[in-house]
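Q: Got a minute? One more chain.
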Amino acid sequence: MNGIVLVTGASGNVGNEVVKQLVARGQRVRAATRTASSLPFAAHGIDTCAFDFTDPATFGPALAGVDRVFLVRPPHMAKAAAFEPFLSAMHEARVGHVVFLSLLGVERNPIVPHHGIEKRLKGSGLGWTMIRPGFYMQNLSTTHLADIRDHGVISVPAGNGRTSLIDVRDIAEAVAVVLSENGHLNRGYAVTGREAITYQDAARILSQVTGREIRYTAPSGAQFARHMAAAGHPRDFITVMRGIYLVAKLGMAGTVTQELPRLIGRPAITFEQFARDNAALFGSPASAVPASA
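A: Always. Here it is, folded:
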């Protein structure tokens, strides 16, 4: 493994952390992004490239000298077939190992695009590893942050289902281990948080940490879709999110495994720790209602 590791989605929640973890392990990294968000990487001496799954002209420069790839599905790409050109390009470039950021329980969930991407990757002739995490804690501090920060609510259609929420820092460390060591080819790892909690639990913990009242509203799928559309999210993204939360609502997202600690050599970060680390983001604006004593 003497070549470069191409990290797609390098400006995203997981990709950004993967870049940091690989660099810390002495790996040669190329950070691929669609926009000028690659500039911070360049400022730290990390190789960068412009990359777009829908633009084959970007494939050659991105893959030059690359022997491993961290593959992340962009939120706006909901069709597995759209990845075929890049899978072919990686095969032609003789990439030896592709680590795909998939989804916990994807084998039983054909609704989400990760299911089809896994099938295509397995049939591509490329060496692969599937990292299948539970739902990210950081979705609460990014996608759903405005609802929590400005309105004091977690508004996701997960019902009373439990979810083994995982911190992206743990996912990134697992990815970096797999990309830096031998012995992981053609394997799938279901990586989860330390425990499965409901979003009611998440609201309670955030309330305790921030000192303000945060409620879980448990909207229906249709209510959630309308809310997300009003916030400007594209239809395909909303559809994928509804599918993921439906898995939680049906009680299928609460699996807790030990594969993460076996990979990274330590226990997973707890939701309480995530909440403390990000308390300032969730902090109460002037109009927020303080938590009850």
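A: Residues 230 and 272 are 31 Å apart (CA to CA).
Q: Perfect, thanks.
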